[in-house]
Amino acid sequence: SPVDIRKVKPLTLEGCTNCLICADVCPMGSIGRENVREVAGICIKCGACIKKCPAHAKYFEDPRFLYHRRELEEGLTRRAEPEWFL
User: Fold this and answer.
1) Which candidate, 84, 82, 85, 16, places its Cα nearest to that of 49?
2) Per-residue model confidence as pLDDT tens for the chain (86 residues)
3) Contact, 12 vs 25, CB < 8 A?
Protein backbone atom coordinates (compact mmCIF):
# COMPACT_ATOMS: atom_id res chain seq x y z
CA SER A 1 0.00 0.00 0.00
CA PRO A 2 1.22 3.55 -0.68
CA VAL A 3 3.01 5.39 2.10
CA ASP A 4 2.98 9.14 2.64
CA ILE A 5 6.68 9.56 3.39
CA ARG A 6 6.17 13.22 4.28
CA LYS A 7 4.85 12.02 7.64
CA VAL A 8 7.75 9.64 8.35
CA LYS A 9 10.30 11.12 10.73
CA PRO A 10 13.23 9.59 12.60
CA LEU A 11 12.58 8.47 16.15
CA THR A 12 14.97 8.56 19.10
CA LEU A 13 15.69 5.76 21.57
CA GLU A 14 16.23 6.26 25.30
CA GLY A 15 19.96 5.70 24.78
CA CYS A 16 20.29 9.17 23.25
CA THR A 17 23.07 11.17 24.94
CA ASN A 18 21.99 14.57 23.55
CA CYS A 19 25.34 15.02 21.82
CA LEU A 20 23.55 17.11 19.12
CA ILE A 21 25.44 15.45 16.26
CA CYS A 22 22.12 14.56 14.63
CA ALA A 23 21.05 18.21 14.72
CA ASP A 24 24.42 19.28 13.28
CA VAL A 25 24.36 16.84 10.35
CA CYS A 26 20.70 17.28 9.36
CA PRO A 27 20.89 19.02 5.96
CA MET A 28 17.43 20.52 6.44
CA GLY A 29 18.07 21.78 9.98
CA SER A 30 14.92 19.95 11.05
CA ILE A 31 16.17 18.36 14.27
CA GLY A 32 15.80 20.71 17.20
CA ARG A 33 18.91 21.57 19.20
CA GLU A 34 16.82 22.08 22.35
CA ASN A 35 15.10 18.69 21.96
CA VAL A 36 16.65 16.22 19.49
CA ARG A 37 13.54 14.04 19.70
CA GLU A 38 11.60 16.78 17.93
CA VAL A 39 11.73 16.97 14.13
CA ALA A 40 10.01 20.27 13.46
CA GLY A 41 10.93 20.80 9.83
CA ILE A 42 10.98 18.72 6.68
CA CYS A 43 12.78 15.37 6.86
CA ILE A 44 14.13 14.25 3.47
CA LYS A 45 14.93 10.73 4.78
CA CYS A 46 18.64 11.07 3.96
CA GLY A 47 19.58 9.04 7.05
CA ALA A 48 22.45 11.34 8.08
CA CYS A 49 21.18 11.52 11.66
CA ILE A 50 20.96 7.73 11.83
CA LYS A 51 24.39 7.10 10.30
CA LYS A 52 26.23 9.65 12.44
CA CYS A 53 24.62 8.93 15.82
CA PRO A 54 27.37 7.51 18.05
CA ALA A 55 24.76 6.00 20.42
CA HIS A 56 22.76 4.41 17.55
CA ALA A 57 19.69 6.09 19.02
CA LYS A 58 18.05 7.37 15.80
CA TYR A 59 15.92 5.09 13.63
CA PHE A 60 12.90 4.84 11.33
CA GLU A 61 10.12 2.45 12.33
CA ASP A 62 7.30 2.97 9.80
CA PRO A 63 6.99 -0.52 8.22
CA ARG A 64 5.70 0.77 4.88
CA PHE A 65 8.57 3.27 4.58
CA LEU A 66 11.13 0.59 5.50
CA TYR A 67 9.62 -1.77 2.91
CA HIS A 68 9.82 0.95 0.26
CA ARG A 69 13.44 1.75 1.18
CA ARG A 70 14.42 -1.94 1.04
CA GLU A 71 12.69 -2.25 -2.35
CA LEU A 72 14.73 0.66 -3.71
CA GLU A 73 18.00 -0.63 -2.25
CA GLU A 74 17.50 -4.07 -3.79
CA GLY A 75 16.27 -2.80 -7.15
CA LEU A 76 18.83 -0.03 -7.68
CA THR A 77 22.17 -1.70 -7.10
CA ARG A 78 23.82 -0.73 -10.40
CA ARG A 79 25.44 2.69 -10.62
CA ALA A 80 24.15 4.51 -13.68
CA GLU A 81 26.73 6.23 -15.82
CA PRO A 82 26.00 9.70 -17.20
CA GLU A 83 24.49 9.71 -20.69
CA TRP A 84 24.24 12.40 -23.32
CA PHE A 85 20.99 12.82 -25.20
CA LEU A 86 21.17 14.83 -28.40
Assistant:
1) 16
2) 677 888 889 999 999 999 999 999 999 999 999 999 999 989 999 999 999 999 999 999 988 888 888 888 888 888 888 989 88
3) no
